[in-house]
Predict the 3D structure of the following.
Amino acid sequence: MARSNLRIYRGPAEKQAPVRSASTNEPATITVELGEVLPLLADAVASRRTWLSDFENDSITISADLYEVLLAYQYYRHPAA
């Protein structure tokens, strides 16, 4: 009886995760859409994941208009004293 070679079909290929080279001395940067990262960060904050504290002092780069919206949100979300 001949053996059949079966493979598991996992659906269409999705975006490949970025891979960085371990040989560079520069800090690694990856550009991703906010919509890709935000749900994960929101869930991590809501779940009080301790690994978030590992990145508290990391710098991030955001667009100037997003920064302005965040500043306005920060100002208006606090009730006046």
